Amino acid sequence: MKKIAVLTSGSDAPGMNAAIRAVVRRGIFKGLDVYGVQHGFKGLIDGNFVFMSLGSVGDIIQRGGTILQNTHFENFKTEEVQKQALAQLVEAGIEGLIVIGGDGSFKGAEKLNSHGFPTVGIPGTIDNDVVGTEYTIGFDTAVNTAVEAIDKIRDTASSHDRTYIVEVMGRDSGDIALWAGMCAGAESIIIPEAKYEVEDIITRLKHGHDRGKKHSIIVVAEGVGKGIGTELGKIIQEKTGFETKVTILGHLQRGGSPSAYDRMMSSQMGAKAVDLLVEGEKGIMVGLKNGELIHTPFEESIKEKQIVDLNIYHLARSLSI
Ligand code: F6P
Fold first, then answer.
1. What is the CATH number of the domain that holds 47?
2. What are the residue ranges of helices labelled H in 211-282?
3. Ligand 1 — pocket residues by CB below 6 A?
4. pLDDT at position 7, please?
5. 149 C-alpha to ligand 1 centroid (Å)
6. 178 and 250, same structural domain?
7. Pairing relation of β-strands 33-37 and 49-52?
8. Together in a domain, 176 and 293
């Protein structure tokens, strides 16, 4: 193998740039030419390949977002479009592809692989919801951003004796809510993976109030339902009489300089992906299990969603009584 390409796809995540850097630098170290594909799978169709030198990935390890840019590209599901992408790769003399993204991106990567084009994935999404890895790039930074924001909200909540509902990201997964809620000492955490009862939240709020606690934070994952934060805020205010405000953290959780842990994971996973491609591996995603880098076939990683660790959920409940 002499020429490989790398692309980022789906939603961006802090640490994607560090992963691009690792792929490019490890590739060059291994004697490869490395190309960046701009705008994800759409860039493949357009043949949007850029030669990546050592210097092209300088000064990006600390930057959020992705220098290669991402496009949500629904069309990649059709065979005709997949074949166009293959033709572009072959014409450019590229022999292997590394895809950095979530499970949606790996569906595209799996298609290319099944058409005979060697492809390796690196899990990158703030949601931490990919099967086959305990960690996805960007999660740590997003959780830290959410915790910092909730700490600030708690300051003002306590000054005004208010209840705050903080809605955090996670399309289908409650992991950001779970970690941010636990680490910011939320009074309740609501995630799609665990049933919740409004009455239970209210009982917990009142219990805290009775023992002199005049402010509370409830963290809810957006994946519980559209507009869930606002809806809950109204119900809780009505039923408790406590002044309740809603803050939706939104996309600020996706930006910012990656944490040291994200940079470390990105660097290790990026280099591993190159090594695997060079060794002739394909159709797999790099992952982390029990502190070790492992790999999983795309077919497995796209089958279902990673389930959060419900032990953390129950622990958080028992610590916020
Ligand atoms: O998958 C990452 C994520 O940030 C989810 O948490 C969120 O639901 C979604 O992407 C938002 O996507 P978009 O930026 O396209 O609105």
1. 3.40.50.450
2. 228-240, 260-278
3. 11, 102, 125-127, 169-171, 222, 254
4. 98
5. 18
6. yes
7. antiparallel
8. no
Residue 61 DSSP symbol: T
> Which tens digits make up the pLDDT trace of 171-200?
999 999 999 999 999 999 999 999 999 999
Residue nearest to atom 15 of ligand 1 (CA): 11
Catalytic-role residue among 12, 103, 127, 175? 127
Ligand 1 atom 14 nearest Cα: 11
Task: Indicate which residue's Cα is closest to atom 7 of ligand 1.
Answer: 171
The model carries a pTM of: 0.97
Residue 170 CA, closest ligand 1 atom number: 6
Ligand 1: distance of its center to the CA of 171 in Å?
6
User: Does 134 share its domain with 268?
Assistant: yes
Mean pLDDT of 195-221: 95
Judge whether 275 counts as a catalytic residue.
Answer: no
Predicted pLDDT of residue 221 = 98
pLDDT of residue 222: 98
Per residue in 77-90, pLDDT tens?
Answer: 999 999 999 999 99
Expressed as residue numbers, the domain containing 202 is 140-254
Buried b (16+ CB within 10 A) or exposed e, 58-95: eebbebbbbbbbbeebeebeeeebbebbbebbeeeebb
Cα first-last separation, the chain: 58
Residues 111 and 206 in one domain: no
Domain harbouring 190, CATH code: 3.40.50.460
Residue 250 has pLDDT above 90, yes or no: yes
How many of the other CB atoms lie within 10 Å of CB of 155? 10
Q: 106 falls in which pLDDT band (50, 70, 90)?
A: very high
